[in-house]
Automatic annotation (TrEMBL):
Keywords: Isomerase. This is Sugar phosphate isomerase/epimerase. The keyword Isomerase applies. Signal peptide: none annotated. InterPro entries: IolE/XylAMocC-like, Xyl_isomerase-like_sf. It comes from the Bacteria. GO terms for molecular function: isomerase activity. PANTHER family: HYDROXYPYRUVATE ISOMERASE. Gene3D superfamilies: Divalent-metal-dependent TIM barrel enzymes.
Length: 291
């Protein structure tokens, strides 16, 4: 039976407040567990950090994805070694290179996939600004060249990067659906055409929330058709700290981002249940959320 896991980003647990107050790593992990997340997104380029975090998660019956940011093919080798030792349901790779042409991308993609395939480890390439996948149309050309490429879809980057006009045109929906149809995992935040991360509960952002919920619904259903009967889909709540999060003149955030992460977890779990139920043909629009 297909299943769904909702993770919390440890990067998103950073507060970056003007007063310098931060949660300890133990506090962050305990908060994630007590809130009911299934696991976390873990940086794997720092072995000691990854070992500490995965030990906690394993002890509490949780799971994780291994996040990395290679600048060369060889940069993935130690990540693969760490995953072989510590485990992970997949490697989430942000390609920290910016080739000018599609041909320049090919050695990277082929090299990274060869290393992961040889190790028997699932590899997803994340859609992200200032990376190989920074531009939507360039990424679609990558998919033309690698039609079986598995993506982690962080859709927020393309809404801002392409500055989609509202309402979203059918052409832009179709372009996003091409990306979503290659998604084997999701990173979650809600963007507008001008902001990478808007507050989920503010009334003026409800249209953007509905847009993303619709794309995630499409993505969950697409994945359910493509994936095996015992496959696992992961969704990482990734509401980032400032300057992803908006702040006021005093430098403090305009909303409670940790509460929003837990709200996002509930929204996508409910959406997964709706997508998994044969009695429901489609998910209803989410109700307006109140602060």
């Amino acid at each position: 039976m297909q299943s769904f896991r909702v993770y919390q980003s440890l990067w998103a647990m950073e507060r970056r407040r003007p007063d310098g107050q931060e949660w300890t790593l133990d506090q962050k992990l305990s908060m994630i567990r007590e809130a009911g997340f299934d696991g976390a997104g873990v940086r794997f380029f720092d072995y000691d950090y990854a070992r500490t975090v995965t030990s906690f998660l394993r002890e509490h019956g949780m799971s994780w994805q291994a996040q990395c940011y290679p600048r060369s093919v060889d940069d993935l080798k130690p990540i693969i070694e760490h995953v072989q030792e510590l485990g992970a349901d997949h490697v989430n790779l942000q390609a920290d290179v910016r080739p000018y042409t599609l041909d320049e991308c090919i050695p990277y993609i082929e090299g990274w996939r060869r290393l992961a395939d040889d190790a028997g480890i699932a590899l997803h390439i994340e859609t992200h600004r200032d990376r190989m996948t920074t531009d939507l149309l360039f990424t679609l050309h990558l998919l033309d060249r690698f039609p079986d490429l598995r993506l982690t879809a962080d859709l927020s980057h393309y809404v801002v990067g392409r500055e989609f006009a509202w309402p979203i045109s059918e052409e832009n929906h179709a372009l996003m659906h091409r990306v979503i149809d290659q998604a084997w995992g999701f990173h979650g935040r809600v963007a507008s055409r001008e902001q990478i991360q808007v507050q989920l509960t503010f009334p003026q952002h409800q249209e953007w929330l509905r847009l993303f919920m619709g794309w995630w619904e499409y993505g969950f259903r697409s994945w359910q058709r493509r994936a095996g009967s015992d496959a696992v889909l992961t969704f990482l709540c990734e509401l980032g700290p400032p300057e992803y999060a908006m702040t006021g003149a005093d430098g403090y955030e305009l909303s409670d981002r940790w509460s929003e992460a837990q709200l996002m977890m509930k929204l996508v779990r409910d959406l997964w249940q709706q997508c998994s139920s044969p009695a429901l043909a489609s998910a209803p629009e989410p109700q307006r959320l109140r602060a």
